[in-house]
Amino acid sequence: MFEHFGIKDFIDILLVAALLYYLFKMVKISGMRPLFIGIVVFMIIWVLVSQVFDMVLLGSILDQFVDIGLILLVILFQDEIRRFLMSLGSKKGWKFISKLFVPVDKQQKDISHITSIVLACMNMSKAKVGALIVIQGDLQLSLYEQSGEIINADVSSRLIENIFFKNSPLHDGAMIVVGKKIKAAGCILPISQNPNIPKHMGLRHRAGLGITQETDAKVIVVSEETGKITFAEEGRLKVNVNPEELQQLILAE
């Protein structure tokens, strides 16, 4: 079986392993890791039965499951497949290739808008004002922007605090920041169904986590009950973040 194994076969296996690892990271974000592991184990058993041990009867039965399973996989992982294709089509998916040909701009970035966001979160944390701020990555958030009120204003700590003021009509929704602009506020986000979210976290945290499972956005949540700042990215929550950590997390690539 392995007598004709060459460099092309090694590259083939390496690419499949890289694809499986990338898919594993994506389903881990959405909380479907046990299902993904179960499918991988089934595929290993199928290969062993059909190709290695050449069990005809059991192999033919498993072949039928595989034929139907392809359709089931598309249904079960439709959100992950959509996110995978969106990632490939975004500039983030080609970032590594572009670095090989385009010299990196080493000029210092203007982070004044990030400083304004951090300052506003610090003030809201002290006053225990609830907030949900979404910072767009490479994937567009136009669909979620349309669910709220379009603002399209420069990022300002005072404006952020006024939007999330308790008597403001927009304070219950999410604010979406695109570049140096507050694009929209009062936006509705998808709610995460991840069962591992702590029970004491409310809808703000679940919505913040939900958008990071759908896109590559970074999210800041300020708790109305405790005033603690939580940072969400790639389906993971980092709780009780201080202002210095928050700025580093936002700027991290």
TrEMBL record:
Catalytic activity from the UniProt record: 2 ATP = 3',3'-c-di-AMP + 2 diphosphate
MF annotations from Gene Ontology: adenylate cyclase activity; ATP binding; diadenylate cyclase activity
Domain of life: Bacteria
Limits of the DAC domain: 78-243
Coiled-coil annotated spans: none
Task performed by this protein: Catalyzes the condensation of 2 ATP molecules into cyclic di-AMP (c-di-AMP), a second messenger used to regulate differing processes in different bacteria.
Subunit description: Probably a homodimer.
Family: Belongs to the adenylate cyclase family. DacA/CdaA subfamily.
Protein name in UniProt: Diadenylate cyclase
Phylogenetic lineage: Bacteria, Pseudomonadati, Bacteroidota, Bacteroidia, Bacteroidales
Name of the gene: ybbP
